[in-house]
Amino acid sequence: MTQELTFGQRCGRALKHWRGTPASARTAFPGTTLKAIETAIAEGEQTHRAEVRLIVEAALTPGMAYQGVTNRERARELFAHYGVWDTEDNCGVLIYINLAEHQVDIVADRHVGRRITPEQWQAICRTMTAGFASGNYHDSTLQALGELNSLLQHHFPATGERSNQLPNEAILL
Q1: Residues 6 or more apart whose Cβ sits within 8 Å of residue 159
Q2: What's the pTM?
C-alpha cells in the first residue's frame, strides 16, 4: 500500500531521499556503534529464543520514494530479502531504520507477532526516534535493543543451547 502523494510531495520526497547517502548512515552509525549493536544483539539472544536483525538505510532510491513506497513496505521487503522470517521457531525480528524519513519500523515473524502488542513495538520505535531527533543514534539504539531484548526474554525465554540462526551485525544500506 503505497502512500497517496501529490506530484509536489512525490518530488520533494524523492529529493529528500536522493540527498541521503551511505556516508550519512556511516556518520550516524560509526564502527563503534555498529560493534555495540552487534554485541547487544548477541547478548540479548543468549537470554531469549528470538533472532534479531537491524538494518539502517540512508535513503530509499529516489524512484521508490517518488512511487510512495512506505517505510513499512520497505521493512517487509527487507525482512523477506534477508531471511529474517526463516528461523526455526518463527521468532525473527527486524528493526528497520530509514534515516531520510527519520522513521523506525519493526517487522516480526508470526510467532513473535502473536505475543507482542503493536503498542509495545511502537514504544521501542519511539525510544529510537526520540533519541535520533537529538542526534543520539548510539545510546537510543542500544536502549531500544535493551527494551526489545527484555520483552523477548519475557515472552520467549532461552531454553538452553541453540545455534545463532541469523548474523548479529547491523546492515548499512
Answers
A1: 49
A2: 0.91
